[in-house]
TrEMBL record:
Its EC number is 1.1.1.85. This is 3-isopropylmalate dehydrogenase. SUPFAM superfamilies: Isocitrate/Isopropylmalate dehydrogenase-like. Keywords: Amino-acid biosynthesis, Branched-chain amino acid biosynthesis, Cytoplasm, Leucine biosynthesis, Magnesium, Manganese, Metal-binding, NAD, Oxidoreductase. The gene is leuB. Binds 1 Mg(2+) or Mn(2+) ion per subunit. The record marks Y139, K190 as: Important for catalysis. Its cofactor is Mn(2+); Mg(2+). Pfam families: Iso_dh.
């Protein structure tokens, strides 16, 4: 019988506020579809570390492996919070999950909904997806420091790119491009300067392109890609890029499509050897936490990506349509609370 078993990691700051609304919507849509929904909460994040000293114990990773998918809110302390080492939770919990569960496709769709005010004067039709590598690059923690604290300090942060890792990501990008109407793939890097990793990416894209003759391919250096993201975002269809470039590109992509409160993502293990994890692109937003000011739409759209991944594309489409219907009625002059937005989207369902 139809059922979904989801682990919920609400996290810190606005994480619990926006996740509550995503859960509200998931309950509504699964009930309507006759799908049995099981939710298990996991306390993890900065607050959990402060209370217990634990980041992400091995037995928690094992327990998470038993679920169909993970719904994630956000983690992280406020910048300048001295009670917690900077980046500890981000590295030892969030990135550790992405790496341990082999979330190699970090999927970040960008869509400008009708009724959303873009900061761009003439945005055109924005409908692209960033396929960001999720397990390699400068994120792997391969670095070190010599003579720390002296005038002669040397710090390295080595970007690790493997043929295996780049190939599976690039192939996923081509597959997605081949299934979209425009069938266009743009790979973004900086191979004029990053000649080792950049050229591995370049050769990989050229090789995989042979298997997808229907997909048109172009390349942009990341700096120029940022120009076009602002001057002509309609040119993009599928963007494939490395972990760090993808992080930066997708915050700008969120801004041009009406704000970080709308941007959803999936950390996807396409081989399904472990559960995938779905989360808003944004962080814990300490500046607005606890005030019911956060927009839960990104979390709700992330739940739609989850439904799609676990085999309920019809339910996913219903959630996306409910979000689109709600967005079309939004009045920027009349701010709603986080839970009011969740209620409104659930009501459409
Ligand atoms: P952030 O995304 O948390 O906030 C940036 C700005 O966007 C803030 O002004 C915030 O109020 C606003 N914002 C974010 N989400 C919003 C929403 N749903 N509705 C309305 N406004 C929203 O980024 P930051 O300030 O750089 O990071 C804060 C903390 O979050 C840090 O500890 C950081 O490491 C962490 N972080 C975690 C994740 C994650 O868990 N996936 C992602 C990014 C940052
Ligand atoms: C994101 C975040 C994370 C990232 C951080 C918090 C590790 O910025 O999900 O975009 O850089 O991937
Ligand atoms: Mn980010």
């Amino acid at each position: 019988s139809a059922s979904i078993d989801i682990a919920v990691i609400a996290g810190d700051g606005i994480g619990p506020e926006v996740t509550a609304e995503a859960v509200k919507v998931l309950k509504k849509v699964t009930a309507a579809e006759g799908v049995e929904l099981t939710l298990t909460d996991y306390a993890l994040g900065a607050e959990h570390w402060l209370a217990t000293g634990q980041t992400l114990p091995e037995e928690t990773i094992q327990a998470l492996r038993g679920h169909d998918a993970i719904l994630f809110g956000a983690v992280g302390a406020a910048p300048g919070d001295t009670r917690i080492p900077s980046g500890l939770i981000e590295r030892e919990m969030l990135l550790k999950l992405r790496f341990s569960l082999d979330h190699y496709v970090n999927l970040r769709p960008s869509f400008l909904y009708d009724g959303v005010a873009s900061p761009l004067a003439a945005p055109g039709t924005i409908d692209f997806v960033v396929v960001r590598e999720g397990t390699e690059g400068p994120y792997v923690g391969n670095g070190g420091v010599l003579r720390k604290g002296t005038m002669h300090e040397v710090a390295t942060e080595v970007s690790v790119n493997t043929a295996f890792g780049v190939e599976r990501l690039v192939r996923d990008g081509f597959r997605r491009a081949s299934e979209r109407p425009r069938k266009k793939l743009t790979y973004v890097h900086k191979h004029n300067v990053l000649v080792y990793a950049g050229h591995l990416w370049k050769r990989t894209v050229e090789a995989v392109a042979n298997d997808f003759p229907e997909v048109s391919v172009d390349y942009l250096h990341v700096d120029a890609a940022m120009i076009f993201l602002v001057t002509d975002p309609a040119r993009f269809d599928v963007i494939v890029t490395d972990n760090l470039f993808g992080d930066i590109i997708t915050d700008l992509a969120a801004a041009v499509t009406g704000g970080i409160g709308l941007a959803a993502s999936g950390n996807i293990n396409m081989d399904r050897t472990a559960p995938s994890m779905f989360e808003p692109v944004h962080g814990s937003a300490p500046d607005i936490a606890g005030q019911q000011k956060a927009d839960p739409t990104a979390a709700i759209l992330s739940a739609a990506l989850l439904l799609n991944h676990v085999g309920y594309p019809g339910a996913a489409t219903k959630v996306e349509e409910a979000v689109a219907a709600d967005i079309a009625t939004r009045n920027p002059a009349a701010a709603r609370t986080t839970s009011a937005i969740g209620d409104a989207i659930a009501a459409v369902l």
